[in-house]
Write a structure and sequence with these properties.
3-stranded mixed β-sheet; alpha/beta; 63% helix; Alpha-Beta Plaits; 15% strand; Alpha-lytic protease prodomain-like; 10 helices; elongated; 379 residues
Length: 379
């Protein structure tokens, strides 16, 4: 809970600084844009206004994401942060498309654009302030690992770059190059669209179910392996809900452990990871697996040679090889005629088992015999 309050504090700080700063800049830019008839400046003012809206989305997003878990949302509301990022991206795309269209029209029919040194200086100061806001947002976003604050930071930085372009366009207009204003309006619009698409892809990827960073997986594995008695870790899965992670993993233990001992090890692993990473953890116990001395391709080729020599075997599938510390276990299914009796299938089982044991001494053989239910190609 303390961590959640800390995240909200930093998010609200970033949002209010952005809202107040961008509101002031928007008022200044829109007045100067209308006075000078500069489409690039008007587009930039709209970009700044969208910063106010996105910061409001940050406020709402963190307010909702900070709510505790409930009956319908047992893992909390943390993904609201990514939904907020998605909303920011959509707002940027709408603004970008609209001003790109307007800028293209003004390129075809360029109006007279005014501007003074004072306006240029205002745009340079605006760029400096926006870059400061961007760095503040990046710093706070990285501190609390928030994609929403990082998204807002990119929004600020794109506005800073846009302000520089507008300043250049106004200078060019003073020398009669009015189309340059429309060109820079298009560039500002494309910049807005680029940031929007980037944030849209990032937030959508997370909501769909993006794999965690390799560093996080390594942490989970390291914490599990620190528990005495754990021989290996595999199949680590992570489902992220903002601050809350739901983790499942397979731990490998020696085969001579009792069920009670294995359960105790699994509980220890779950508690260690849960306390270290603030997560909900489920550990599944497996027997210790080691690299097999058999190559899968060689094994399947030899298995084909053996089974194809037996007329009773019509087909085979579902080959699986598990390698433990002291032996390999081979599983596979074979298809036989529906008319085969239980006695004949029993004899066939031992016949195949006997041949395979000679080929792979020490390997445990498990064969599932099933009747053919439809016409299939023979082995």
């Amino acid at each position: 809970m303390q961590k959640n309050r800390s995240r909200q504090y930093y998010a609200f700080l970033e949002a209010w600084v952005s809202i107040i700063g961008n509101t002031v800049l928007f008022i200044i830019k829109i007045i100067l844009g209308l006075i000078t008839n500069s489409i690039s400046l008007i587009a930039d003012s709209a970009h700044t206004l969208s910063d106010v809206l996105t910061s409001a989305v940050v406020l709402i997003g963190f307010k909702v994401s900070g709510q505790p878990a409930d009956e319908k949302h047992p893992f909390g509301h943390g993904r609201m942060e990514s939904i907020a990022t998605l909303i920011i991206a959509v707002l940027l795309l709408v603004v970008g498309f609209n001003f790109c269209y307007t800028s293209i029209k003004r390129f075809i029919h360029p109006p007279v654009v005014g501007g003074t040194v004072f306006v240029v200086l205002v745009m340079v100061v605006s760029a400096v302030l926006k870059e400061w806001m961007a760095r503040l947002s990046f710093n706070l976003g990285k501190r609390i690992e928030s994609s929403t604050l990082v998204a807002d930071a990119w929004h600020h930085r794109s506005d800073a770059f846009a302000s520089i372009l507008v300043a250049i366009a106004i200078i060019a207009a003073r020398f009669g190059y009015f189309r340059l204003d429309a060109i820079f309006g298009i560039l500002v619009s494309l910049l807005i669209l680029w940031v929007g698409f980037r944030l849209l892809r990032m937030s959508a990827s997370y909501l769909i179910g993006e794999i965690p960073k390799i560093e996080f997986i390594e942490k989970v594995s390291r914490f599990a392996l620190q528990v005495p008695g754990i021989k290996g870790v595999h199949d680590i899965l992570v489902h992220n809900y903002g601050e809350k992670n739901i983790i499942s993993l397979h731990i490998e233990v020696a085969k001579n452990l009792s069920l009670e001992e294995a359960h105790s090890l699994a509980t220890t692993v779950e508690n260690r990871i849960a306390n270290s990473l603030d997560a909900s953890v489920v550990a599944h116990v497996d027997l210790r697996q080691v690299p097999s001395k058999h190559k899968p391709a060689d094994l399947e080729r030899k298995l084909y040679q053996i089974l194809s020599s037996l007329p009773e075997v019509l087909n085979y599938h579902a080959i699986s090889l598990m390698s433990l510390e002291n032996k390999d276990i081979l599983f596979f299914h074979i298809l036989v005629k529906r008319e085969m009796t239980v006695g004949d299938s029993h004899l066939l089982y031992h016949k195949i088992e006997s041949v395979l044991r000679k080929e792979w001494p020490g390997t445990e053989i498990n064969i599932h015999i099933e009747p053919r239910t439809q016409q299939k190609e023979d082995v």
